[in-house]
Write a structure and sequence with these properties.
366 residues; alpha/beta; 7-stranded mixed sheet; 56% helix; globular
């Protein structure tokens, strides 16, 4: 099987794949690349890659300030997350249940390369479902409050989703998403979170927390990216997966363990899409035998060609300059697909109808 190729690879993706590409950039290229990388949440990561390769001399003077500022911002985000994790750990210490960090916070707490230059929007944690009420009560008592106050939204999250409504601290304005599993229980790829909790390991840099095991961390990143309908940070999330794969590939029998674990959790298809696109776009070191084998349940060839088409458009910086023909169509398809993966039609259609009605008749803000 031939790897999918993204048409007209954008500059940011080219630099992530091979940082030496920046040597040939003109000032006009730099101007566009900075705007695109900033929109994708990758400007600090690009700056760090350039520094690691000793390519600073190739950066025009007018561009250096942007790269330096991005690194300052990323360091500030990292410090803020570390501080917030200490507050959360103190708050949840009495819950007497494992608290597992997810996504960006877990990369930072585990000291992984995927945390380098990363910006953070919120902090995601996972607790066993029996401990969910106690964890929420402890957070509310310590100053976090619900962001979603609408009664329907509250019921929707608590009955159908894999997390409770987001909680925001009343003074620090930080947001915590509290999960009890990694995907909606009503979804096509429903996962028994207990199996992931059993494999979780202590977080190196965040006492009181656990992080997912290496294969589970990649599987969560894969299902979060390829089953979700939010693609604003799609390229950043794919590069997270790329960096995790490169780091964990040194583990003994890693690729076989990853494939076996995907089968155990029913996440073969999201993992297949993650490996295929990380290899094609970012040259991740994925064994060809794994992409060619039926173990990961690749789709039929016509479906795969269509998915390559839409992912090639979604996995680009969310900037008008980077849009390819039919990008809007591709993003609309992925949005609808995400909802269909999240809930069966008997639940989804009434939910979407209600959202459409509320949006249509919502009063305009003053």
């Amino acid at each position: 099987m031939t790897k999918n190729k993204s048409p007209c690879t954008d500059r940011v993706t080219s630099a992530l794949r091979d940082p030496s590409a920046v040597v040939a950039w003109s000032e006009r290229d730099w101007d566009r690349a900075i705007r695109h990388a900033r929109r994708a949440g990758l400007l600090a990561r690009l700056a760090l890659l350039i520094a690691e390769r000793g390519l600073d001399a190739s950066v025009p003077q007018r561009a250096r300030g942007h790269l330096e500022a991005a690194c300052v911002l990323a360091r500030k985000h990292g410090e803020d997350v570390a501080r917030e994790l200490r507050y959360i750990a103190e708050t949840l210490a009495a819950v007497q249940a494992p608290v597992i960090l997810l996504k960006g916070a877990s990369y930072a707490a585990a000291g992984l390369p995927a945390s380098a230059g990363r910006l953070f929007g919120d902090i995601d944690i996972l607790v066993p479902r029996p401990a969910l009420a106690a964890a929420e009560a402890a957070l509310v008592a310590s100053g976090w409050g619900g962001v979603k106050q609408d009664e329907y939204d509250q019921r929707y999250y608590r009955r159908w989703m894999h997390e409770i409504p987001p909680l925001q601290h009343r003074t620090r304005r930080t947001t915590v998403d509290v999960h009890h599993t990694i995907v909606p229980p009503t979804g096509r790829h429903a996962v028994d979170a207990r199996r992931m909790i059993d494999w979780a390991v202590p977080a190196q840099a965040a006492p009181g927390f656990l992080v997912l095991s290496p294969p589970d961390m990649i599987l969560h990143a894969a299902v979060h990216l390829f089953d979700d309908g939010e693609w604003t940070n799609g390229l950043r999330d794919l590069d997270d997966i790329n960096r995790l794969l490169r780091h964990f590939a040194a583990l003994s029998e890693f690729w076989q363990v990853l494939a076996t674990r995907a089968a155990q959790l029913g996440l073969e298809r999201p993992l297949y899409y993650a490996l295929r696109n990380a290899a094609a776009l970012l040259d991740a070191p994925v064994p060809q035998r794994l992409l060619s084998a039926p173990d990961l349940r690749p789709p039929a060839r016509p479906v795969l060609r269509w998915m390559d088409f839409v992912f090639a458009r979604a996995l680009r910086p969310a900037h008008a300059d980077c849009a390819l023909p039919f990008t809007r169509l591709a993003l609309s398809f992925l949005y609808v697909r995400a909802h269909c993966l999240r809930m069966p039609l008997r639940l989804l259609l009434p939910h979407l109808l209600r959202k459409a009605v509320v949006k249509r008749f919502k009063p305009a803000e003053a």
